[in-house]
TrEMBL record, chain A:
Keywords: ATP-binding, Ligase, Nucleotide-binding, Protein biosynthesis, Transferase. Residues 328-476 form the Asn/Gln amidotransferase domain. Heterotrimer of A, B and C subunits. The keyword Lipid biosynthesis does not apply. Its EC number is 6.3.5.-. This is Aspartyl/glutamyl-tRNA(Asn/Gln) amidotransferase subunit B.
TrEMBL record, chain B:
The gene is gatA. It catalyses: L-glutamyl-tRNA(Gln) + L-glutamine + ATP + H2O = L-glutaminyl-tRNA(Gln) + L-glutamate + ADP + phosphate + H(+). The keyword Kinase does not apply. Allows the formation of correctly charged Gln-tRNA(Gln) through the transamidation of misacylated Glu-tRNA(Gln) in organisms which lack glutaminyl-tRNA synthetase. The reaction takes place in the presence of glutamine and ATP through an activated gamma-phospho-Glu-tRNA(Gln). GO terms for biological process: translation. This is Glutamyl-tRNA(Gln) amidotransferase subunit A.
Length: 477, 484
């Protein structure tokens, strides 16, 4: 029987504000436990929240980027539940009236088609603290540094039909918040977290199946694995004649499986009500227009520009605009190499990306700057070095041995383009290999490669390969 | 010294008749000798008060004294005080010492008012008799077998017995006005948003408002000058220019339009209260005021609406008292749930638990619309009633509370009858309006309060209307026997 998967994602993006959403405490990651929790974050008696304007600005920026309506009036509500890392006994969130309304994002599918994923809403809320269960001899430690960090919860429509689509959406969203500079996107530190609502239904039916909410899937890889596991689990249940129960499930990355956390019956009644300590958030068009003026070029616009301006394929343009840093790096390379856009694309997506992957570095941490790479590519274009030698030059640059010109000079890698010099070497190679010459002239064409190889070997790879080909062809006849 | 008004004390300090240290010592001495039978103070801060008095005297010597510099006062134990415990009348916070001052406390500290101590109150400001306090009930100085009212009962009793020239209070449903009425003092609840709630422990955030309690309206005006003002740490604080609340004290009452809501003069009001209120209205007529009937048709809904909204907010506001970070924690919790249930079960008193449960129920899925949303709609109707009434009149008057002070223990087993003690005051909080209670006579030896309700931001007018009455009456100058 054919099943269709239905996925909606809830993403919590930590907003990159300097201070917390309702207090002046710092949001910096990694400080000593409880050193960045002020009276407001600790939920001491009598303290009150004051909304951080910067968090609102970032939420509006996001809303504009996904073409959503910005609510002129939104309301903060209290979500009430008891937990030791929730100091006030409630989380300040937005419930009925979120700041960002219906919007959309376009993702690219594997077959090159694009698909629009609806975004139901995005709302502002505060993060909770952390409970630490190890090293406390059977007790738990509470670190409230994270309590009150601003979050933008971005809720998608149930528009995704496979784990791959979910990953594509998540990556697109991840790129977007980083383009907008509203979230650092660090998934390991929990700055960008994802829960997935997953259900299956018979193909062709309208009605959604019963969904499970999967929590704790904090890498792109885990999202795919967790969803695929969950889809299999649900199909097995349904095909076995059972029924999926609505519940919250936790993904265990070590086992690669999801397991039940709590059922719908055990779910909290959060008793949402408008927070009487905060006035409704009113956003006027002046504020919205001011924020619109700060919007950077967005991924889709940039991709389109790369295709038309640099003549790149949709695929290449997509890869090179996957992050704002990647796009910036690429454009700097093009500029430094004198506008050889395709060559720059090949190198950024090829050698550079491979080297970054190997060393597990971000593009912003590349030891070879975009300008340095560009100047090296210019040396290929002006025939100072061949593409092959360039790989050695790049490796030396990567290892900190200097600029392209320094490496070429130091290692004597300058390409030999002097026809006379190449001819002398060719003559010597032909003289040293009389039997190969005889066979070649007898019709064994394949041996041409042998002679090219010998010449290149004799020049240490520095001879201009095109010239070698031309000269050899003439001399061997 | 203790029979003087704040204005008089201020003038005497300025003339050098006595120092702030002498004045502060005098009141500390009175607290020590007289509060044993009243229990109006929870914490007495003699040393800090004298240190602040010395600083006030030094400031005066430098020529930098303000109107209240050197005049001591007391704070309701709901206002956080840096380094001095703040219990909110609860076992839950019996050991709690805040590392910050409430906005109100900061302002009086900056004005140079030595703090004599913290006054007793109903637990978390929930009560109308001061009998829910963990520290035991406060006794009414007019009859120590009777309650002082609540929740600011300690402040009211301390001012009535002249143990302090003034005290701060808070008013969520009548908690300044009702005890002021029952103890024969003057108290004002300003417009919601006038007084910072920063550091004032929340009961029901959308209703809570701090205010002054003192012997006279003029004193309350001087206190309001310090107490009111914008505070950026409180998002509900109203951003308006500082105002001189004494500015309209001398304004004559000729032509003042007084509205009497017929709903406040029906059954349920004790005859002695009705007689005193009638006489006070008569006094206003003599002062040139016109009196007319007005109607507040939805005021009958105010008690039920209040007992949905206030418990709903309190059920959430009091969730932070969980035994995890500060405050009371039960002995040897065996797991997290045990820590929560026993810390809260043992730390809160019966009335607080009752309201937390009522509020939790009102906010629950399936009941929210029927209770909380409906109550919020009623609030708007009540505010609309007042808006219409203020089209025809300048001030609304009536009784503050239906009875005089009742006996200790008389209503503790009957919460609804206790709740009805605030039947005339609650609507004012629901609408966010300013209100006052001023002494207006006695019934069987017990004080009766007259309630004055003004339009939004009309505190200065309200204080003037009260002051003009106090110029021709001496009810506010009476001191209970044994405390003169």
């Amino acid at each position: 029987m054919d099943w269709e998967t239905v996925i909606g994602l809830e993403v919590h993006a930590q907003l990159a504000t300097k201070s917390k959403i309702f207090s002046g405490a710092s949001t910096a990651y990694g400080a000593a436990p409880n050193s960045q929790a002020c009276a407001v974050d600790l939920g001491l008696p009598g303290v009150l929240p004051v909304l951080n304007r910067e968090a609102v600005r970032m939420a509006v920026k996001f809303g504009l980027a996904i073409d959503a309506e910005i609510a002129p009036r939104s309301v903060f509500a209290r979500k009430n539940y008891f937990y030791p890392d929730l100091p006030k006994g409630y989380q300040i969130s937005q419930y009925e009236l979120p700041v960002v309304g219906l919007g959309r994002i376009e993702i690219e599918l594997e077959d090159g088609e694009t698909k629009t994923i609806g975004i139901t809403r995005a709302h502002l809320e505060e993060d909770a603290g952390k409970s630490l269960h190890e090293d406390f001899h059977g007790m738990s430690g509470i670190d409230l540094n994270r309590a009150g960090t601003p979050l933008l919860e971005i809720v998608s429509e149930p528009d995704m039909r496979s784990a791959k689509e979910a990953v594509a959406y998540l990556k697109k969203l991840h790129a977007l918040v980083r383009y907008l500079e509203i979230c650092d996107g660090n998934m390991q530190e929990g700055s960008f977290r994802c829960d997935a609502n997953v259900s299956v239904r018979r193909k062709g039916t309208e009605k959604f199946g019963t969904r499970a909410e999967i929590k704790n899937i904090n890498s792109f890889r885990f999202v795919e694995r967790a969803i695929n596991f969950e889809v299999e689990r649900q199909i097995d249940i349904l095909e076995g004649g059972g029924a999926v129960v609505q519940e919250t499930r936790l993904f265990d990355p070590d086992k690669g499986e999801t397991r039940s956390m709590r059922s719908k019956e055990e779910a909290n009644d959060y008793r949402y009500f408008p927070d009487p300590d905060l006035l409704p958030l009113e956003i006027d068009s002046g504020f919205i227009e001011a924020v619109r003026g700060t919007l950077p070029e967005l991924p889709d616009e940039k991709k389109h520009r790369f295709m038309t301006h640099y003549g790149l394929s949709a695929y290449d343009a997509g890869v090179l605009t996957a992050s704002r840093e990647m796009g910036d790096y690429y454009e700097a390379v093009v500029k430094a190499c004198g506008g050889h856009a395709k060559l720059a694309a090949n190198w950024v997506m090829g050698e550079l990306s491979a080297a970054l992957n190997k060393d597990n570095r971000e593009i912003t941490e590349s030891p070879v700057s975009a300008e340095a790479l560009g100047r090296m590519l210019a040396r290929i274009e002006d025939n100072t070095i061949s593409g092959k030698i360039a790989k050695d030059v790049f490796e030396a640059m990567w290892n900190g041995e200097g600029s392209a010109d320094e490496v070429i000079e130091k290692k004597g890698l300058k390409q030999i383009t002097d026809t006379g010099a190449i001819e002398t070497i060719i003559d010597k190679v032909i003289a040293d290999n009389p039997s190969q010459l005889e066979q070649y002239r007898a019709g064994k064409d394949k041996l041409f490669g042998f002679f090219v190889g010998q010449v290149m070997k004799a020049t240490g790879g520095k001879a201009n390969p095109a010239q070698v080909n031309d000269l050899l062809k003439r001399k061997l006849q | 010294m203790h029979d003087k008004t704040i204005a008089e004390l201020s003038a005497a300090l300025a003339r050098g008749e006595f120092s702030s240290v002498e004045l502060t010592e005098h009141f500390l001495g009175r607290i020590e000798s007289l509060d044993g039978g009243l229990n109006s103070f929870v914490t007495i801060t003699g040393e800090q008060a004298l240190a602040a008095a010395r600083e006030a005297d030094a400031r005066r010597a430098r020529g930098e004294a303000g109107p209240l510099t050197g005049v001591p006062m007391a704070h309701k134990d709901i206002f956080c005080t840096d380094g001095v415990r703040t219990t909110c009348g609860s076992k839950m916070l019996d050991n709690f010492i805040a590392p910050y001052d409430a906005g109100v406390v900061e302002r009086f500290r900056a004005a140079g008012c030595p703090m004599l101590g913290k006054t007793n109150m109903d637990e978390f400001a929930m009560g109308s008799s001061n009998e829910t306090s963990f520290h035991g009930p406060v006794k009414n100085p007019w009859d120590t077998g009777r309650v002082p009212g609540g929740s600011s009962g300690g402040s009211a009793a301390a001012v009535a017995a002249r143990l302090t020239p003034s005290a701060t209070g808070t008013d969520t449903g009548g908690s300044i006005r009702q005890p002021a009425s029952l103890c024969g003092v003057t108290g004002m609840k300003p417009t919601y948003g006038r007084v910072s709630r920063w550091g004032m422990i929340a009961f029901a955030s959308s209703l809570d408002q701090g205010g002054p309690m003192a012997a006279s309206a003029e004193d309350c005006a001087l206190l309001a000058n310090v107490m009111c003002g914008f505070d950026g740490r409180d998002s509900t604080s109203i951003e308006c220019a500082d105002e001189d609340f004494t500015a309209r004290l001398d304004e004559p009452l000729k032509g003042l339009r007084i509205g009497l809501p017929r709903e406040f003069f029906g059954d349920g009001m004790a005859p002695g209260v009705a007689a005193a209120v009638d006489e006070a209205i008569g006094e206003y007529r003599k002062l040139g005021a016109e009196v007319k009937d007005v109607t507040l048709p939805n005021s009958g809904l105010s008690v039920p609406a209040y007992y949905v909204v206030a418990p709903a907010e309190c059920s959430s506001n009091l969730a932070r008292f969980d035994g995890v970070r500060y405050g009371y924690r039960c002995e040897n919790p065996k797991d997290l749930m045990d820590l929560y249930t026993r810390s809260r079960g043992e730390g809160f008193g019966a009335e607080v638990k009752r309201r937390i449960m009522v509020g939790t129920y009102a906010l629950s899925a399936g009941y929210f619309d029927a209770y909380y949303l409906k109550a919020q709609k009623v609030r708007r109707l009540i505010a609309e009633d007042f808006r219409k009434a203020f089209e025809d009149v300048d001030v609304i008057m009536g009784p503050t509370s239906p009875t005089t002070a009742f006996r200790l223990g008389e209503k503790t087993d009957d919460p609804v009858s206790m709740y009805l003690s605030d039947i005339y005051t609650i609507a004012v909080n629901l609408a966010g309006l300013p209100g006052m209670s001023i002494p207006a006579g006695f019934s069987d030896g017990l004080p009766v309060g007259l309630q004055l309700i003004g339009n939004y931001f009309e505190e200065a007018r309200l204080l003037g209307v009260a002051h003009q009455y106090q110029l021709v009456t001496d009810w506010h100058q009476r001191i209970p026997g044994g405390f003169a």
